[in-house]
Amino acid sequence: MRVNHLNLINFRNYQKVNIDIDNGINLIYGDNASGKTNLVEAISFVSLGKSFRTNDDSKLIMHQNENARIELEYFSKKKNYLDVILTKEGKTVYHNDIKLERLSELNGLFITITFTPEDVLLFKDSPSVRRKFLNIACSNLYRGYIKQLSDYKNVLKQRNALLKDEIIDERLLEIFNDGMIDNQYQIISCRYQILKRLEEKLNLMVKKFTNINGMIKVKYQCDFDLYDSIADFRKNVLDIYNQDKEQDIKRKATSRGVHHDDFTVYLDSKEVADFASQGQNRLIALCLKLSYGELIKEQINENPVIILDDVLSELDNQHQKKLIDILTEYEQVFITSAEDENIEGINKYQIIDGTVLRRN
Length: 360
Ligand SMILES: Nc1ncnc2c1ncn2[C@@H]1O[C@H](COP(=O)(O)OP(=O)(O)OP(=O)(O)O)[C@@H](O)[C@H]1O
Ligand SMILES: [Mg+2]
Prior knowledge:
Layout: E1 2-11, E2 14-20, E3 24-30, H1 36-48, E4 67-76, E5 78-87, E6 91-95, E7 98-99, E8 112-115, H2 127-141, H3 145-163, H4 170-179, H5 182-209, E9 216-221, H6 230-251, E10 262-267, E11 270-271, H7 272-275, H8 278-300, E12 305-309, H9 317-327, E13 332-337, E14 347-352, E15 355-358
Parallel strand pairs: 3-13, 3-14, 8-12, 12-13
Antiparallel strand pairs: 1-2, 1-4, 4-5, 5-6, 6-7, 9-10, 10-11, 14-15
The structure holds adenosine-5'-triphosphate and magnesium ion.
C-alpha cells in the first residue's frame, strides 16, 4: 500500500496542499508548529476515519472556515481514492466515489500504522488506550470483528439502561445477558489470537531492532475464562452475570465484560509499564506496532503505510540506524522530524508554515 497523491483543503494549518508522494521513506521536516504532525494526521485520518489526536473533528477544520477536505489517491492492487469532507456538523467519506454508509467500511482498505510520542505511555496508560490499539488491529485483520463489537456495545448500552430503572424487568435482563454471549465469544477469540500472534512477532522484532535481551510475554486480561466451546463459555458468562446481579443493579452498570479487557506486556516476568525504562517502554511499544505491521503483511499480503511522528529524535544513534534499516522493508513510510535528517536514499519534504516543499 502507498499514498500516490494528497490534496488538502482547509485542513488544520493547510489552506491548500496538492502533492505527489513517492514510495520509500518520506521525511517531513520543519520547525516546531510548522504543520508536520498535521500532515501525517491527514493521512492517518482517511485510514481510520478519525484523528489520532482528537475526537473532535471540528478542530481539524482551519480556523475561520466552514469545512475541510482530504483527498488521497492510494495504491493497493490498483489505484483507489479516498475523499473525506469535514463540516462542523459531521463528516462524509467516499471510497472510489462511493459514499460509505459506516466508517467501519474503511477497515482493511488503506491501512496505516501510526506511532506518536504519546505511545511511550502505551503500557502505562489506562486500559482503554490498549483496547483501542487491539480493536484497530482486530478490525483490520478479521472481517466481522467491528460488527461484533458494535453489536456488543449496543446490547451493553441497553443492559446498562435497564440497570438504571427503578424496578428491573428480570426477564429483559435475562434476554440481555443472553445477547451478550455470542459477540463476546467472538471478540475474545479474536483478541486472544491476535495477542498470541503479536507476542511471537514482538519477540522477534525486539531482538532484531533493540538491544533489549529477554523474553517478552503478552498476557490477555479478560473477565471471563477462555473456552474452546461456546457452550462452556455461555455457562461461565451466565454464572458470572448471575453472581454479579445485585452488584450490577447497585452500581447501575455492567461490572464484567469485554469492555474491561486489557493486556499486559512483561519483559522477563516483570511488567514493562512498571520496570522498564522510558526508552525501553518506547522501543517495546514501537516494536509492538511494527509487529502488528508484520501481521498485516502476513495475513492480508499488504504492506501497511507506517507513520512515525517525532520518533527519531527520541532514539539513540544505534536504534535510529536499525529503525531505518527495518523501515526500508516497508513500501512507504512517513517520518516527521524537526531536523533535516541525513539519511541516504530518502525523499524529503520541508514544511514551512503550512506549505509543503519537495526538497530532493
Ligand atoms: N484548525 C486549525 N486551524 C489553523 N491552525 C491550526 C488548526 N489546528 C492546529 N493548527 C496549528 O497548526 C500548527 C502546526 O501544528 P503541528 O502539530 O502540525 O506542528 P508540528 O510541525 O508537528 O510541530 P512540532 O514540531 O512542535 O511537533 C500549530 O501552530 C497549530 O496551532
Ligand atoms: Mg508535531
